[in-house]
Amino acid sequence: MERLLFGTGGVPHSARDRSTMAGIERIAQLGLGCMELEFVQGVKMGRETALEVAELAVKKNVVLSAHGPYAINLNADNPEKLKASVGRIFQTARVAALCGTQSIVFHPAYYMGQPPAQVYNQVKAQLQQIVSQLRTEGNKVSIRLEVTGKVTQFGTLDEVLDLSAEIEGIAPCIDFAHWHARTGKYNSYDEFTHILRQVERKLGRQALDNMHIHVSGIAYTVHGESNHLDLQDSDFNYVDFVRALKDYKVKGLVICESKNLEDDAQLLQQSYRAA
Ligand SMILES: [Zn+2]
C-alpha cells in the first residue's frame, strides 16, 4: 500500500441503502478510502454481485477487505463443526477474491479450555491446509487472523504474529481496541509503538507497509471485550494511536468498527492528518 486508508467495518449508516454498492459509493462521498465487507452472519453474496462490487470499488477508488463469519472455530472438537468452519473460510475467500479484496479477516478459534500451545498447533495445521488449497485454486487472498477481544478466544497478539511468521499467506489483523480490552493496557503512545515494533521485529518492515487494523471505542470487563462504543464515549486513546501510526509510517487499512462507523472513521482520518 502507498499510504494509510481509513474506512468502515460494513456499509456506512448514512449510505442510501444497506447494499454493498451503496456502501462503496458513500465511502467515496465521505472522502474515506476503504470498507470491510461484513460476512459475519454468513456469506450470501453471489458471483454476479461480487463482480459488480469489484468494478465499482475500482471506479470509486475504494479498497475493500472482507470479514468472515463469526461462526468459525478451527479448534472445534466436533469434526462436522470443524468442517463447517473451514468451509466458511473458503466461501469468504472465494467471494472476496471475486470482489477484488486483497485480504479476508476472521477470528480463528476458541481455546475450549485447552492449553494455548496445543490450540496453536491445531490452528496452524488447519491454516496450512486452507492456504495450500486456496493457492491450488489460484486464489491469492491473504488470510488475516484477528487479534481477538475475549480471553476465551484464541488470538493474542503473539499467537497472531507467530502464525503470520510461520505460514506464508497468513498475516495479522491487529485490532487495537480488542487488545486494549483484553489486557486492560495498550492505550498509550509507548504501548502502541511497542506493538508496532513487535510487528516489525517478527514480520519485517513490509508488514508495517501493509497493515490491516481494526479499531473502535470499546467497553470491557476482566473477561475482555463486552461491546463496541463510539471513540468519544470510550477510554480509547485514539489521538496517541493515530500519532503512533503516523510516526511509524504505517501503511494499509484502518477499519473503524465503532457504533457510529463513518463518524469515527472520519474522526480518525482527521486526527491522523492533523497529527
Ligand atoms: Zn472481527
Describe this structure in words.
This protein is α/β, with parallel strands linked by helices. It is built from 10 helices and 12 strands. It has helices at residues 20-29, 47-60, 79-98, 116-136, 157-166, 176-183, 189-203, 205-208, 238-247, 262-274, and strands at 4-9, 34-38, 63-67, 103-106, 109-110, 142-146, 153-154, 170-175, 211-215, 217-221, 224-229, 252-256. It has an 8-stranded parallel β-barrel, surrounded by 5 helices. Strand 3 (63-67), helix 3 (79-98) and strand 4 form a beta-alpha-beta unit. The protein is globular, with a radius of gyration of 17 Å. 50% of the residues are buried. The model has no long low-confidence stretch (mean pLDDT 97). The structure holds zinc ion.
Task: Map the helices and strands.
Blueprint: E1 4-9, H1 20-29, E2 34-38, H2 47-60, E3 63-67, H3 79-98, E4 103-106, E5 109-110, H4 116-136, E6 142-146, E7 153-154, H5 157-166, E8 170-175, H6 176-183, H7 189-203, H8 205-208, E9 211-215, E10 217-221, E11 224-229, H9 238-247, E12 252-256, H10 262-274
Parallel strand pairs: 1-2, 1-12, 2-3, 3-4, 4-6, 6-8, 8-9, 9-12
Antiparallel strand pairs: 5-7, 10-11
Bound molecules: zinc ion (ZN).
Zinc ion (ZN) binds at residues 67, 107, 146.
In short:
By secondary structure, this protein is of the alpha/beta class.
From the alpha carbons, calculate the radius of gyration and give it in angstroms. Answer: 17 Å
Roughly how much helix do the residues carry, as a percent range? Answer: 40-55%
Distance between the termini: 20 Å
The stretches of 5 or more residues where confidence is low (pLDDT under 50) are none
The small molecules bound here are: zinc ion
